[in-house]
Amino acid sequence: MQTADGQLLATHPDDLAAALEAAASSAAAAVGLRNRMRGMTLAELRAAGADEERFPTADALIKVFAGLLADSGLMWREKRDPPYEDIPLLLMDLKADAFNAEAINSIMAAAQSVRATPHVALLVSSPQQLALVQQQTRWHGPLIKAFMDRENPNPRVSSEDLEPFALLAPSIRMSNAFMAAASRLGKPLLSWIVDTPADLYRGLELGVNAVVSNSPLALRAVLMDWRDRCSDRQGV
């Protein structure tokens, strides 16, 4: 979310609103916060309950992420494009009016300052957004194309149209035909939002490379259960 003074907070607006409402001094003070917060500066949001630990700026998050990459030896240093399915990525999904040239350029500058450009990806959901990125920004990181099932669960797949994108991010609800066609393009598939065992099963059956989830601990429990069952069958 972008603050009134142009800062980017690395959070979903709904999560920020919930935190501000919980921190309000009274029920009356919480009324309308969800709408008012978009007109607040970073300092005002901090004072209202948006602490730095839960709601870091995008710049701060990118710096921490880059530090983890460097410490673990996973920072991509080669000049060629990386295998995006095999390297850690920080996905920036700019909501609503936060998707603008100023915000995108600030993210790019932060990534470049810590040499993490290949690891910071921008989600693009429409031709208009792609045109903005290509014509009005200095973006050099990977782009990820989002596909929304509520718009069309089986859109046409064109290798030419999707050439600018390093990864494809289809909703887990997209049709089987679309998922098969997308897989044939050879780009990694990052599916969302995968929150249930059934969704995870479907993603594996469709051959997706990674998933976005609001319930990572629940999915971890499913994966651990699968691991234990496989171990039992193999007598490990």
From TrEMBL:
Q: Which UniProt keywords apply?
A: Glycerol metabolism
Query: Which GO molecular function entries does the Swiss-Prot or TrEMBL record give?
Result: glycerophosphodiester phosphodiesterase activity
Biological-process GO terms, alphabetical: glycerol metabolic process; lipid metabolic process
Per the UniProt record, which EC number(s) apply here? 3.1.4.46
**Source organism superkingdom:** Eukaryota
Which enzyme class, named as a word? hydrolase
Domain GP-PDE positions: 1-223
Looking up InterPro entries in the UniProt record yields: GP_PDE_dom, PLC-like_Pdiesterase_TIM-brl
Catalyses: a sn-glycero-3-phosphodiester + H2O = an alcohol + sn-glycerol 3-phosphate + H(+)
Q: Where are the transmembrane segments?
A: none
Q: Please state what the protein is called.
A: glycerophosphodiester phosphodiesterase
- Organism for this UniProt entry: Chlorella sorokiniana
